[in-house]
Write a structure and sequence with these properties.
Chain B: This is NADH-quinone oxidoreductase subunit H. The complex is a heterotrimer of chains A (119), B (330) and C (544). With 330 residues, chain B is mostly helical. Helices cover 72% and strands 1% of the residues of chain B. In chain C, 76% of the residues lie in helices and 1% in strands. Classes of the chains: A mainly alpha (119), B mainly alpha (330), C mainly alpha (544).
């Protein structure tokens, strides 16, 4: 049926919620006996090693996207972090005045255009 | 819009092309991929349940769901993981309704974006949250790698669908604009026109690579690289929860292939007028797409993460961008 | 004829509420009094602002000339649907923030000064939005900025806070001064600072060359003056809205402020910059103003800046280790998206594809509202998490404390979904409008950039969720901390996020209405017409 995109999204979201509920219902009917927590599953699975071999279970959050940051876009991030967001005031000023210069240039070009046309 | 229509949509969400059909198609797709991969690697693949083992994935699924018990880990939040599994399944079902394969399919202008958000973003978010809700060094590694891949392959997927949509909207002036339905009905014309052939070819390459990476299939199975991270996102999943996660993954595979079949290979073309023959053509094309995906899967080793990400940029985003540039010029 | 009016009374009464506070601080020692006092003042503002919005949406544009002076001579407040709506959202979110402050500063002694500044911030926000006078906008911008500088440096024993406030203040002073210089050019050439009058002179004067008895005609070259004024004003406004490359102050300033203030700064203050840009580029230098080429060039520059802010904000989000800094970068990213939305109105888009024009602007405004709700929510949640984790803002120290507070985590998820823009949350629909606008306009590559920005920011949000809900740290949970009040507030905001999505058909048509009131030639004409009617009424009153 042809709908406007907003109504279509709302209907599909309704479908999402409805299906999720139905799936949950089916799941709770067909799944096996209630959760049995056996002792061997209590600790995180570390390929058979005991958890005591680790100093921490979780990963520090700054290592999460290591591959994305250092694998794919090392140069980009180096530029963004070390050069652009260096925290030094006059370096900010540089970027900001370049932008002001750009806006002024637009104004100047416009003025030149108007003057050339004899406005 | 009346109540009967809404009821019809809900009913089709549960039957065709919704939950039930999706389950069957996705289990079948899993079997097809497993069997072909096995054959490519000179193994037998599933043989035990059903003719040629076709029922094996069904049996696996049911066994995990019904026989195995739910288990919970000390730090895990099983109920949250399950909630997001159901949301992911719901999102997949919602995205099947956007494809023009049933009388209750929904289409609108810009429904391309709806498809990206339901099929791409919701499913990816669910998978990531399922993975991180049961913390474990391997799960986290897998989830973060998966998210990194998603950050690139989601735009690539969008880009490659954008090209046929743009061509149908601007070159063929088809209505509704930017809609998957319009793309499906006009895709064959785009292939037959020499002007639009090149961007279509580029976007097909782009979407194949994007799909491969979105589905974590080799060479993009970086999130579940077994030597380093055991089973990646699924390390801590077991029993019914693992069944749900596998279902999401297989349904993702099935719908991706279906999207490529419909939007790039024209679905029932050239038998649109004959429903039976059209359906048969669609199925044949669908199997063809699955086979291509499997062949790519079977013929590559695994990339490292940064290799994978660079490959997405090089072989999915770049062709897509070139295709889009050509499409814009036409 | 013009007596006590809800449009006129709001800002002055809030000023009164704010400036009485230091005196009361000397007289009354009970801290609770100030919490209740500030909440009531905010409630008063919220009620009036909501009523004003109701008035505008039912009875049309409202003009209030202060002191009964005819507008170009005196200051006038002029409310069309755009600023009435934003004013309402601002006042309501400020109400939530003020109530939250009562929890946040429960053990703090000098709350009188805090609330003076917070109410001052609200005065500045609503004043900036309501005013119909470009010079009054400058004054209110200063009120807003000075409160903001002081609030950023509120923890004056923390060197980082003071440093951030000084950095923010230094460049902020430059920005407002530049805007002032721009106003000098405007006043010298157009003889007026009233926005409606300016809009008239720039847009309709060509067709009706009737000099305004109060402000005369042009002096000098209006083209040159417009070019200089627009360049300077835009620089100042992008500074306030923290668009790249004027965004540097934001990730330093927002995290250092007290958390409720961060919510106000990130959710509301940046909106004022965008609002001023929109007002200047669509009402004053409107789509049919005679400086078309200038406007087009500026809009294209804004589009590029919007995309750049979106990308840089999203990329920087991924590498943050401080929860509030992560959210601050997300603000930069979202303001970029808003700018992408509002930068659609070049003359070629308007002429060839008015649908895209309306969609883009509506999407931009809608996204502004969505972002306000989502970002205020996330900052308030971060405040709760920080308090529970013992005061550290580091993502690692927060260590999944949210898992013990499911309602707080629920609110966090709602806010993340809002900002990530998944259906059916409001953030999705505003992004949908922006996507579809650029697809309609034949610029699908802009839509592609928007989706790239969203996809990269997904990484940042995953990091946020992971650190605050799932991480297996061992934070020093202070079991004594009671969080029921802030939890209720963040849940209310979360429900608001959901409602902006579920009621999208109403809200979107309202946004189209809003766009019609400020960005179409008819809308600009109506804006001027209401101003002119007020002028006529006042003048005839004087004659009699």
């Amino acid at each position: 049926m042809f709908l406007d995109p907003l109504t279509a999204t709302l209907i599909l979201s309704g479908v999402l919620a409805f299906t999720a509920l139905i799936t949950w219902f089916i799941y709770s009917v067909v799944k096996s006996n209630p959760t049995n927590v056996s002792e061997e599953f209590k600790e995180p699975y570390l390929a058979g090693e005991p958890t005591s071999t680790l100093s921490r279970i979780d990963a520090p959050s700054n290592t999460l996207f290591w591959g994305f940051i250092y694998g794919l876009s090392r140069k980009l991030y180096h530029y963004l972090r070390e050069r652009m967001h260096s925290g030094i005031l006059n370096e900010w000023g540089e970027y900001m005045s370049v932008y002001l210069g750009l806006l002024s240039l637009i104004g100047l070009l416009f003025t030149a255009l108007i003057l050339l046309r004899g406005g | 819009m009346d109540i009967m229509y809404i009821l019809g949509v809900l009913a089709s969400a549960l039957t065709y092309p919704g939950l039930a059909t999706l389950w069957i198609i996705s289990m079948f797709s899993e079997w097809w991929v497993r069997k072909l991969t096995a054959r490519a690697q000179r193994r037998m693949g599933p043989t035990y349940v059903g003719p040629l083992g076709v029922l094996q994935p069904f049996a696996d699924f049911i066994k995990l769901l019904v026989v195995k018990s739910e288990s919970s880990q000390r730090y895990g939040n099983i109920s949250l993981a399950k909630a997001f599994a159901f949301v992911g399944i719901g999102a997949l079902v919602a995205s099947t309704l956007l494809l023009p394969i049933s009388p209750y399919s929904i289409y609108s202008r810009y429904d391309l974006i709806l498809l990206i958000y339901f099929f791409g973003v919701w499913v990816a978010v669910s998978e990531v949250v399922i993975a991180i809700s049961i913390p474990n060094p391997f799960t986290l590694k897998g989830a973060s790698r998966y998210a990194s891949v998603i950050a690139l392959c989601e735009p690539a997927f969008f880009l490659s669908l954008l090209i046929p949509a743009y061509l149908t909207a601007k070159v063929l002036k088809a209505e509704p604009t930017w809609s998957i339905t319009a793309v499906v009905s006009y895709a064959p014309q785009l292939w037959l026109n020499p002007l639009t052939l090149i961007p279509m070819l580029l976007s097909l390459i782009s979407i194949l690579v994007a799909t491969q990476s979105k589905l974590m299939l080799p060479p993009f199975n970086i999130p579940e690289a077994e030597q380093e991270v055991i089973a990646g996102p699924t390390t801590e999943l077991s029993g019914p929860l693992l069944a749900l996660f596998n279902f999401i993954h297989d349904a993702d595979l099935a719908i991706s292939s279906l999207i490529i079949t419909l939007a790039f290979l024209g679905g029932p073309y050239p038998f649109e007028s004959n429903p039976a023959l059209g359906a048969l053509t669609t199925i044949v094309k669908f199997l063809l797409v699955l086979t291509v995906i499997t062949v790519i899967r079977a013929s590559f080793g695994r990339f490292r993460l940064e290799q994978g990400l660079k490959t997405i940029v090089k072989y999915s985003i770049t062709p897509g961008l070139i295709g889009l540039a050509i499409a814009l010029i036409i | 004829m013009i007596g006590l009016n809800s449009v006129g009374v709001l800002v002055p009464s809030l000023v009164g509420f704010a400036f009485i506070l230091p005196l009361l601080g000397k007289l009354i020692k009970n801290v609770k009094f100030f919490h209740i006092y500030a909440a009531l003042a905010s409630l008063w503002a919220a009620i009036l602002a909501t009523y004003n919005a109701y008035l505008v949406f039912t009875a049309g544009t409202q003009v209030y000339p202060f002191g009964g002076w005819p507008p170009p001579l005196g200051i006038a407040y002029e409310l069309d649907k755009l600023n009435a709506l934003l004013g309402m959202v601002t006042a309501l979110v400020m109400l939530a923030i003020t109530i939250y402050s009562a929890w946040y500063l429960k053990d703090y002694e000098g709350v009188a000064y805090y609330y003076t500044l917070l109410l001052g911030l609200e005065v500045g926000l609503i004043g900036c939005l309501y005013t119909g006078d470009a010079f009054n906008l400058f004054v209110m911008l200063e009120v807003l900025s000075i409160s903001a500088y002081a609030l950023v440096g509120f923890y004056r024993s923390k060197p980082e806070a003071v440093e951030a406030a000084i950095k923010y203040g230094m460049f902020g002073a430059v920005a407002t001064t530049l805007y002032f210089v721009g106003l000098v050019f405007i006043y010298a050439t157009f003889g007026t600072l009233n926005m409606a009058d300016l809009a008239f002179k720039l847009t309709f004067y060509v067709y009706y060359p009737v000099p305004n008895p109060f402000s005369g005609t042009f002096f000098g070259n209006p083209y040159v003056a417009s070019a200089v004024a627009l360049a300077l004003a835009l620089w100042a406004f992008t500074y306030k809205s923290a668009a790249f490359p004027n965004h540097f102050w934001l990730p330093d300033a927002h995290p250092e402020a007290p958390t409720p203030v961060s919510a106000a700064l990130s959710g509301l203050v940046v909106n004022v910059g965008v609002y001023a840009i929109v007002r200047f580029l669509y009402t004053i230098f409107g789509p049919s103003a005679f400086v078309v080429q200038l406007r087009d060039a500026v809009l294209i520059a804004l589009l590029v800046l919007g995309i750049a802010s979106g990308l840089i904000g999203a990329l920087m989000m991924v590498v943050q280790e401080d929860i509030k800094r992560l959210l601050a970068y997300s603000t930069i990213s979202h303001i970029g998206l808003v700018l992408v939305g509002v930068a659609i109105g070049t003359s070629s888009t308007l002429n060839q594809n008015s649908l895209a024009y309306v969609l883009g602007l509506a999407g931009g405004i809608y996204h502004m509202v969505n972002h306000t709700l989502g970002k205020a929510l996330l900052f308030l949640v971060s405040g709760i998490l920080i308090a529970l984790a013992g005061g550290s803002r580091k993502l690692d120290d927060i260590g999944g404390v949210g898992r013990r507070y499911p309602l707080v985590s629920l609110a966090l998820f709602l806010g993340v979904f809002q900002l990530l823009g998944v259906p059916p949350f409001g953030g999705f629909f505003s992004k949908l409008l922006i996507y579809s606008a650029y697809m309609e306009a034949g610029m699908p590559y802009v839509s592609l950039m928007v989706i790239l920005i969203s996809a990269i920011s997904l990484l940042g949000y995953v990091k946020l969720i992971y650190a605050s809900v799932f991480k297996v740290g061992s934070p020093k949970v202070e079991q004594t901390t009671k969080v029921s009040l802030p939890t209720a507030i963040v849940l209310a905001l979360g429900i608001a996020c959901l409602v902006t999505g579920l009621a999208t058909t109403y809200i979107t048509s309202m946004m189209f209405d809003v766009v019609g009131s400020f960005a179409t030639p008819q809308g600009v004409y109506d804006y001027w017409q209401s101003f002119f009617n007020t002028l006529l009424n006042l003048a005839s009153g004087v004659m009699r």
